[in-house]
Please model this.
Amino acid sequence: MASKTKYIFITGGVTSSLGKGIIAASLGKLLQSRGLSVTIQKFDPYLNIDPGTLNPYEHGECYVTEDGAETDLDLGHYERFLNVETSQSNNITTGRIYNNVITKERKGEFLGKTVQVIPHITDEIKSNFYKLGQDGKYDVVITEIGGCVGDIESLPFLEAVRQLSLRLGPNNAAFVHLTYVPWIAAAGELKTKPTQHTVQKLREIGIQPDALLCRADRMIPEDEKDKISLFTNVQTWGVISMPDVDTIYKVPRVLHEQGLDGLICDRLHINTPPANLKRWDDLVYETEHPQGEVTIAMVGKYVELSDSYKSVNEALRHAGMRNHVRVKIEHIDSETISPETVAQLAKFDGVLVPGGFGKRGVEGKIQTARFARESRVPYLGICLGMQVATIEYARHVAGLTNANSTEFEPDTPFPVIALINEWKDADGTIQVRDAQSDLGGTMRLGAQSSDVSEGTLARDIYGPVVTERHRHRYEANVNYLDTLRNAGLVISAQTQREQLTEIVELPTDVHPWFVGVQFHPEFKSTPWDGHPLFNAFIKASIDHQKGAKHLKAVA
Model:
């Protein structure tokens, strides 16, 4: 461990989903604005090795890093707020910790000793805590501990944190605890008792928070802050109110105005210039002063939980900021789309079909792609969204009746989408898979590059080479590409070695803007610049809206 690296630990209590990830990212942004180099890591207490096989309803989206790690969606917040890349080392689960320890035990590395939670599990946790600070690259490493204080599964992480802070010594570790202060409408008052209890549990473990962030639907009055301070042993200036805000991008300013970043710098004995939030304030201003609005239909499978498409949602909003419009997203369950109902999509300025797995709702997505193509509505298909557009084109334009993906119909007569059995990774290694391979961690993952054809929309957007992150098992079948091309589909980007299809599109004389991509561009979008593909999609949606208004006026 580099001696100069400081550590901040963020914990939560009372209830989950309070926004520890946003708090961690916001604090990181504040410290970054003071000239510090910052990274953030997430430790999750579940036993899964990674979120790769978790249901999006259970966990939200699975975020993919540049190096191909399947991680928690909070890493998306970290990257978007800090504009830095994360990696495999930034997301650790209990499953991975136990797997590492058991692997060492099987290899005999513990020399026959009894393997226990303390010290072996806690030591493994601590070694992962230290990883990001070892090379001295970062001034501050922020660690978010998933779950809630009091949960059995969180205890080894909290014990490891306690031990680590002791060994780090004074002024090298700080603790921020996020809690919930409910408003009881019948009583007409905020209740601080849950906060008192969660801090009590934390102190029983041996951790005293330096700052207490109190989530509520309103600002916490000063007298309530004083009360919380007395019963939690946190100084009054360390009790910080975190009310609900209408955009996550307001959170850094709210925390800064209450002195959180200054408190942390004092606690860690870090001397820095004052925080410079001008660029961030300009960003917030842009979100609050749009010059127009476009409405996008997102037709997907997991629409009941918007976090299932967190990065796509944010990428659309970023593109809205770049185009000076507010993007209104309407999530539509693809199972509700049929030939009889698909016309409802006509009211939207653009249509997006995101990634997904499984057969449920896929015919609705195919109907969506067909409607967008035939109605000349801007269409963006991501991963599965590209695949359903390819299937639709094969069926209704290329004459391949009943074309499908082998994921949904193994015996389809025209498998235009099929399992990838071999590809070359970014590091040059050849990856081989078959239908019997494990689901977890066996996909084409992470950043890979391909060439982009001249004279295409993709070329205008990306230039000669596209490098994006992947997460998929199925791909356009190379045996049908010539048939699709002859029918008018443009294959505008392919990998050099395997000829895997990366981008498909329609010629602009056939459709104003119709693009499908096999990769996940949403993972590289930031509020600062947006993403070129999403920026172009929203621009096309604005143009479509203007054209529709013109047609109505003429009529």
User: Anything to note?
Assistant: Confidence is low (pLDDT under 50) at residues 422-426, 437-441. The first strand starts at residue 6 and ends at 12. The radius of gyration is 25 Å.
